Amino acid sequence: MNVYFAGSMPSKTYFIFLIKFLLLFCVLYFGTYAFIGLSVEGGRYIPFLKQIDYVSWYRQFLLHSAEQLLKWMGYNAYTRGAYYLYLNGKNGIQLIYECLGIGVLSFWVSFLVTDLVGNIKTKIKWILIGLFTITILNILRIAFLLLAAYKHWISVGVFDHHTLYNTIVYICIIGLLLYYRKKVIE
């Protein structure tokens, strides 16, 4: 087991981990936004990238999953176009790029890939567990945000659901990371 700190000075191992983590995070996070910029018509559009547009696929998955959840709850939910989910014809949300959770997904994958403990099989398993958890939390957020607006539980315009979502997800990520580290080190 590697120790990140030796005495009061951060170890060389810690700095190597941190550099690898930050580099991979930047590649995943900014690379996804670069991909978005290149796969959307206009600007520096590359038509081939539309064939492998994982960002649009992920958005559709989130929207249709939230739609299905609301239908299971007895509501008339439906998607319209690539960005919108409506509830009973009265309320709707637009799922823009900032709502996809690209930052938290990138953080999770970057941490596990660059973590100093665990073998590749264990890391892949935990990457999938984390991606699944983050995606489920995002689906719940989308569905309940739309439901809250429909039921007038909150004034959506003054409620910062992004900050609340990120806080909840990062708390879950910290919990998952602690659990992962405990399981791997055992």
Features:
three-stranded antiparallel beta sheet; two-stranded antiparallel sheet; 186 residues; globular; 5 helices
Brief account:
The protein is built from 5 helices and 5 strands. The chain has helices at residues 12-39, 54-72, 102-114, 120-151, 161-185; strands at residues 5-6, 9-10, 77-80, 84-87, 91-94. Helix 2 packs across helix 4 (120-151).
Architecture blueprint of SSEs:
Layout: E1 5-6, E2 9-10, H1 12-39, H2 54-72, E3 77-80, E4 84-87, E5 91-94, H3 102-114, H4 120-151, H5 161-185
Antiparallel strand pairs: 1-2, 3-4, 4-5
Helix pairs in contact: 1-3, 2-4, 3-4, 4-5
Notes on the protein architecture:
63% of the residues lie in helices and 9% in strands. With 186 residues, the chain is mostly helical. The chain has one domain (53-185). The strands form two sheets. Strands 3-4-5 form a three-stranded antiparallel beta sheet, with helices on one face. A hairpin with a 3-residue loop joins strand 4 (84-87) and strand 5 (91-94). Helix 1 runs antiparallel to helix 3 and helix 2 packs across helix 4 (120-151). The protein is globular.
Quaternary status: single chain
Count of helical regions: 5
Gap from first CA to last CA: 10 Å
DSSP summary, beta strand count = 5
Shape: globular
Compressed to H and E, one letter per element, the order equals: EEHHEEEHHH
Relative strand content: 5-15%
Mean pLDDT: 85
